[in-house]
Amino acid sequence: MNRKPINFMGAAKYLFPISIILMIISLGILTFKGLNYGIDFTGGTLLHLKFEKEVSISDLRKAVADTGLKVRIQPVAKGASFSQIGMGMKFKSDEWILSTVYLKDSGEGWTKAKFIKVLEDRLGVKVKEILKSSDVGPTIGKELKWKAIKAAVLALIFMMIYITYRFEFWFGFGAVFALVHDVLLTLAVFSLAGFEVESSFVAAILTLIGYSLNDSIVISDRIRENMKIRYSKDFVELINVSLTQTLRRTLNTSLTTLIPLTLLVLYGGPALFSFSFALWIGVLVGTYSSIFVVSPIVLHAQKGAWRVK
After folding, report:
1. pLDDT at residue 111 greater than cutoff 80
2. How many Cβ atoms from other residues are within 10 Å of residue 114's Cβ?
3. pTM more than 0.85
4. Selection from 180, 168, 278 nearest residue 223 by Cα
5. Distances (CA, A) of 65 to 73, 133, 190
6. By the 8 A CB rule, do 235 and 5 touch?
7. What residue ranges in 159-207 does DSSP mark as E strands?
8. By mean pLDDT, which of 28-37, 114-123, 161-170, 300-309 is the weakest?
9. Beta carbons within 10 angstroms of residue 53's beta carbon
10. How far apart (Å, rounded) are the C-alpha atoms in residues 225 and 51?
11. Nearest to 177 by CA among 11, 18, 19, 34
């Protein structure tokens, strides 16, 4: 059954300039406020602790919060167990890896011994053994940031080359421009909210690039098919028809992705928050950009100017 095309390009005439403005604002936020880098980037102390008995992740989080320090908690699967509590699961383990700011070996202020003593007092459980204790310098963090930027830039370049080969230049340019739009807005949200950026955040951004690109390719492919086979009408109408035809697929894909991501954001805990929330924001922005950023660029390239009713 043929559906009446939705006038997406009529809305894009106003939404696309707003997207450009948001990108400029995002650049300003990142320039002047920056990101709240985690220990992975800034450096710090890593402690692999073995307790005398199992400790729950909720109790460990409370104990860590009492120190007032920025600490990332990572469980060790060996010796771990799950116990049913109400409708959820409670994770326990006798081995944990804690990453925090620099802890001195001795002297005043926070030392490794003082940090461990506070945990023992709050948990009521002694640390049986320190399996590993090491300091990570900020040099490693700088190297990680450079590799992340390099990976993202290379991904964008190769994606543009592929889409240009598969379709044409303006389809590739539109898709890459939309990816830059999605990444900038996601980074700006993290910057404004002050959320911590860790190595998992880098993985989320690269995943977001792949997700957004997939949606852009589906829409571009439908536009190309309609250009060659089914339509010889006004290009504005052709794009509106193509977007209407792919709308159900776009919404279904986004919703089925957002549902588990929402659960991860709400119940995944601090260890997964950076990854899951970055993807959650990215999916929303990516769904928008595949319709209101990619298509207007292709339209403008084909028409040379706006001709939208």
Report:
1. yes
2. 15
3. no
4. 168
5. 11, 21, 21
6. no
7. 196-197
8. 300-309
9. 11
10. 62
11. 19
Q: How much is the pLDDT for 22?
A: 94
Which value, in Å, is the radius of gyration of the alpha carbons in the chain? 24
Residues 6+ apart with CB under 8 A from 134: 45, 46
Q: Give the CA distances from residue 295 to residues 21, 115, 247, 300, 301, in Å, rounded to whole numbers and listed in that order.
A: 18, 55, 13, 9, 10
Q: Do 249 and 218 touch, CB atoms closer than 8 A?
A: yes
Return d(Cα 181, Cα 208) in angstroms, integer.
12
Instruction: Report the 10 Å Cβ neighbour count for 4.
Output: 8
Q: What is the DSSP letter of 184?
A: H
Please list the residues that pair with 44 across neighbouring strands.
136
Give the distance, in angstroms, between the CA of residue 157 and the centroid of all CA atoms in the same chain: 20
Residues of the chain with pLDDT > 70, as a percent, come to 88
Q: What is the mean pLDDT of residues 235-242?
A: 85
Which amino acid appears at position 217 of this protein?
I
Amino acid identity of residue 228, one-letter, is K
Q: How many CB atoms lie within 10 A of CB 77?
A: 7
- Classify residue 86 by its DSSP letter: T
pLDDT at 18: 94
Cα separation, 117 vs 282, in Å, equals 41
Residue 76: strand, helix, or coil = coil
Delineate the domains of the chain, giving CATH numbers in brackets.
8-37+139-303 (1.20.1640.10), 44-136 (3.30.70)
pLDDT computed for residue 141 by the predictor:
65
Q: What b/e readout covers 121-157, taking b as 16+ CB neighbours within 10 angstroms?
A: ebbebebeeeeeeeebeeeebeebbeebeeebeebbe
Amino acid at 111: T
Q: Are 156 and 179 in contact (CB under 8 A)?
A: yes
Neighbours of 110 (CB within 10 A): 18
